[in-house]
Amino acid sequence: MGRAKPRPNRYTTRVTDPGRYHVVQEAAETLLDELTEAYVVGRREGKEPIGPEPDAEIAPTIRLIPRTPAAGPLSIALTEFPGVVLRLGRWFYEPLPECGCDDCDEDPEELVIELRRLVVAHVEGGLWERVRRGLTRSWLETRLIGPGLKISRRAPIDPAEARAARREGFAAPVRWAPWPRRPQRTDLP
Questions:
Q1: pLDDT over threshold 60, residue 4
Q2: Which of 111, 121, 124, 158 has the most crowded CB, counting CB atoms within 10 A?
Q3: Cβ distance 41 to 67 under 8 Å?
Q4: Pairing of strands 58-66, 41-49
């Protein structure tokens, strides 16, 4: 997505200072608090797998669920690396950092900016998702659009998941609604 240097043809998995990514986790926690204060959402905290794989890392996860069903949920998992895994709507998934090795050299401050951009685009109603049936298999499609941001992704989807998603209305594009804002308090001095 433009935040990391292009991977070299031969790269290592050496990480000399993973602690530099703690700033991303701190920014994510601050952002979650800001969203909880500004929007009508429920907040749930627990431990969840960060991916669909059976052996996926279990990490502390904060989930924000808008009180209107037309608005899509958001969750942030705080990984052990340290880093975060951002999930928007049903399928949008973004690990920050994506790699974290010395060769990729992702800038933590740029990751914080990217995290905010992705979340703002979603909260303002910029995410749409759908399942598309192909000749041999089904595909999920996601698109996230916001200020200076346009991301389109397509990936194969498990047949059972595709059927369930179509039953839930994802055969046609689902555009998640903007999150409802909390009323401004006027009783403050």
A1: no
A2: 111
A3: yes
A4: antiparallel
